Amino acid sequence: MGQNSVRREGTRRSSVPHARDHGWDDELHGAGEATGAGGEQEPAGGPDTPAAPGGRAARRKGTAGADGAAAGTAGGRAAARKQAKKAGKRKVLRWSAIGVAVLVLGTAGAGYAYYEHLNSNIRSGGRAGGDSGVKKAAPNALGDTPLNILLIGSDSRTSDANVALGGGKDLRDDKPRADVQMLLHVSADRQNASLISIPRDTVVPIPECKSEDGKETYAATTSQPINSTLARGGPGCTLTTWEKLTGVYIDHWMMVDFAGVVAMADEVGGVPVCVTTGVHDRSTAQVKGGSGLKLPKGTTEVKGEQALQWLRTRHAFGSDQNRAKAQHMYLNGMLKKLQQQNAWTDTGRLMGLAETGTKALQVSDGLDTVAKLFDLGMQLKNVKVDRLSTITIPTDPYPANPKAWLQPRTADAEKIWDLLRNDVAMDKNGDKAPAKPTAKPADAKPKPTAAAPSSLAVTVVNGTEGNDLPAVEGRAGDIKDVLTGKGFTQADTSKEAKPSKGTVVAYPKAAGDQGRADAESVAKALGLPTSTVRADGTIGNVTLVVGADWREGTAYVAPKRKAGDVPEGANDKATCMEVYSVYRWDGVS
Questions:
Q1: I need a labelling partner for 90 at 20 to 30 A (CA). Which of 221, 238, 349, 403 fits?
Q2: Which of 516, 506, 517, 492 is nearest to 547 (CA)?
Q3: Residue 172 above 90 pLDDT?
Q4: Distance (Å, rounded) from C-alpha 153 to C-alpha 585?
Q5: DSSP state letters, 438-471
Q6: How far is the CA of 329 from the CAs of 302, 332, 426, 508, in angstroms?
Q7: Cα(327)–Cα(315) distance, integer angstroms
């Protein structure tokens, strides 16, 4: 990302400068328990700071009061204990105000300064590069929503050393491309997660995007691979493309450069990966390039440049799809390693990860402080590794360029996107998981009663275009007539179509709980699940978008979904990577 698009560019650790000289792909752009909260540390301003709650001045005051009361009665001792308890509560509140600065650092006096230092490491940019029209998923009964994070690997070729290693000096000024793209989906109940990849050379519809500085607009296209999105508007454009393609709202993006890969692998002490035979990904007489990866048979913990080589390897693993599988193995191994190290509760580990991670990553604005990053980590720490599914979208050759490019296998891809949109686990263990809550907590406030159908203005929009099919003509009018027959006499159609993967009943965000109750009454009348109801800050009344999942019939029939019901071959979790015969290594030469 350029200097104009991110803030606080920061410098990389001197121990890994060489990593910036390596590309993601070998063919350039071608085919302990935290202390502090309630702990015994002194106030940040020093032990004698008068204004510091719980400092010595406060304790002197509390002690004096206690001594006076204790002079004649046992109640004095009780008052002293009460005073000390209040002081402890004030201390907890103070630490809460500092937030994750204490949890991450486990310090007091120098904590805030170091917290600001970490914040200064973080480079961020806008969340989205365009308007996908996709809204955040409706919360479950407990008010929780899924978490979606787009992970991006950039292939910048700007350094002299990188040109010397990979060739292509004429591409020195090219904008970087998003050659690694994975969507991390964490369920609303935080019990399972999915990591979904689209191979870099897959051609998908790319929406209109603005450049990161807002000065240039890139027209929508249907004839370019998805890795070009980073050059068309930065990571925000990549995110918007994924939203448009999947119908899934993406909360954040995180982008790592080459130095970041090396630094993070070193920080965790190496990441375990496995090959069925020895591997040496090198140039051959038939195929030039190669990552240089050289590993013996079995499991190896890779770090430094070797970790980067693993993530870049494609030829030895046979295809882009298999490279995605190897990348999934790497990230799965890193998560397992962090959990084994108690990385979320060990203060020392947190400090190292915080320093390295804030330098290694570029993030969207919603993650632009240590506090936000730490909160994200806390949401991820409970996901069990055996509930992490790794998926690569099935593809076919792209007809216009079958040797170099791919296209999604539409029916299979849409099945995966449907599971994502509805937060259905992609592992079969989801059938054994505890049932999702169906009722709000007992102390939840009562829901308002929906207004009379005849008093509600409802706009019906035809959104049936999608999944490689045109819009169903007259669909909005048909559903409007159904609503009218059910008493919603103010229902009307919109002249403007709005393609949508799924059917949505939206209500004005400003209408709050009353708006939601009104929208739910519309959904109920049509047999739509309450999960289709969501708030929208851009509309003025209840709006029903009839999506590509409801192209016929007057009563909505929800598709049957089952945990783990992904297309054959899409679930690519492997214990060891197979090595293409040409690149097998005997471990000797």
A1: 349
A2: 506
A3: no
A4: 28
A5: -S--TTSPPPPPPPPGGG--EEEEEE--BTTB--
A6: 12, 5, 17, 43
A7: 14
